[in-house]
Amino acid sequence: MRYVKVEGEALGTFVAVTCNTDVDEAKIAEIVARVDAEAKASMSVFDSSSLLSRINRGETDVIDKHIACNIEMAERFSELSDGVYDVTLKPLTEAWGFIEEDDRVAEPNIDSLLQFVGFEKIRVENNRLIRDDERVQLDFNSIAKGYTVDLVAGELDAIGSDDYLVNIGGEIRCKGENPKGEPWSIAIETPYDGNYAMDSYQKIVRLSDCGLATSGNYRRFYYTEDGRKVAHTIDPRSGESVVSDLLSVTVVAPTCAEADAAATMFMAMGSEGGALQLAERCEEEYGWRYYFIYADGEEYRIECSDEFRD
Fold first, then answer.
1. How far apart are alpha carbons 89 and 106 in whole angstroms?
2. Spatial distance between the Cα atoms of 287 and 252, rounded to a whole number of angstroms
3. Strand, coil or helix: what is 9?
4. Beta strand pairing status for 122-125 and 13-21?
5. Which of 175, 253, 255, 273 has its CA 20 to 30 A from that of 186?
6. Distance between CA atoms of 44 and 22, rounded to whole angstroms?
């Protein structure tokens, strides 16, 4: 067996896979492409032909295994956060322009949209999605990327690889050792506005056999004409963009889907919403680890699990 590395695109962002395997790079690339196509066909809100898009338009109510799994996980995080984590946010994310920029409304009518938001407005019966109102729509952007990372990792497990790192747009699942025989080294970015180059990092963590995801409002955001920052994390209680001094949340959990959803959940709670207290509780109860970066004047303030302290 030998380490191979495959890079490309998946889910509209970059993908990089490094794994110790006896199959060639072409086979790994084929696995990534197949999982990417399957994930997009099921869960994408950006592909009008996906199953999720057709469900949102009311053309079908039959769900597949991927959507069923995402709904089940979303219910767990909704309960954990008292409704702050919510996958029925699509009417809001669409109105704020985070699905299609052309759909952006300068001042969305939040009250009219909030009546169609709330996890309690959906349920699954006999593999069918039941919605209280056809205008209730799902958006899995807070979990689907991490879930897809896990799918790729599962395929690598299936071909017998015991050492790998899967990275899709910064969402990561790792197992075993890197080519140096050490835990995998993963950088947590510095959360300054517009850090697209990923050339500045705040912390290097060394991990194995887990998932990692980061959520922040330093990439997907825009400014209104009056200078107000609108970030992609939306609070389902108010319908407004969440902008606080909590700039970035990184979570380490057994799976990337859990880490992805948890990081989004904590960002949605914000600095004043008990995010840090819940993270501490989740570490005690579930073993999740966390790394929070706050704005503190011209500097950053860090709150994190003991494992990540210098």
1. 18
2. 9
3. strand
4. unpaired
5. 273
6. 32
Q: What is the pLDDT of residue 192?
A: 66
Sheet of strand 246-253: strand arrangement: 2-10, 13-21, 164-168, 171-175, 210-216, 246-253, 289-296, 299-304
Fold classification of 46-131 (topology level): T-fold (1.10.3980)
Burial label for 146, CB within 10 Å (0-12, 13-18, 19+), is: buried
Q: Name the residue among 214, 227, 208, 197 with its Cα closest to residue 264.
A: 214
303 membership: H or E segment, kind and range: strand 299-304
CB 116 within 8 A of CB 136: yes
Q: Under CATH, what is the fold of the domain 183-310?
A: T-fold (3.10.520)
Say if CB 63 and CB 127 are below 8 A apart: yes
Strands, E assignment, 126-270? 128-131, 164-168, 171-175, 184-189, 201-207, 210-216, 221-223, 229-231, 246-253
Q: How confident is the model over 224-242, as a mean pLDDT? A: 64
Nearest-Å Rg of the Cα atoms of the chain is: 19
What CA dihedral angle connects 131, 77, 89 and 56, to 10 degrees? Answer: -40
CA 279 – CA 262 distance, rounded (Å): 9
Which three-class secondary structure state does DSSP give residue 248?
Answer: strand
Identical fold for domains 46-131 and 183-310, yes or no, is no
User: pLDDT digits over 125-184, tens only?
Assistant: 999 999 999 999 999 999 999 999 999 999 999 999 999 999 999 999 999 999 999 999
Q: Note the pLDDT tens digit of each residue in 179-218.
A: 999 999 999 988 765 555 556 788 999 999 999 999 886 6
Report d(CA 296, CA 256) in Å as an integer.
Answer: 29
**What is the spatial distance between Cα 189 and Cα 214, in angstroms, rounded to a whole number?**
9
Stated pTM of the model: 0.91
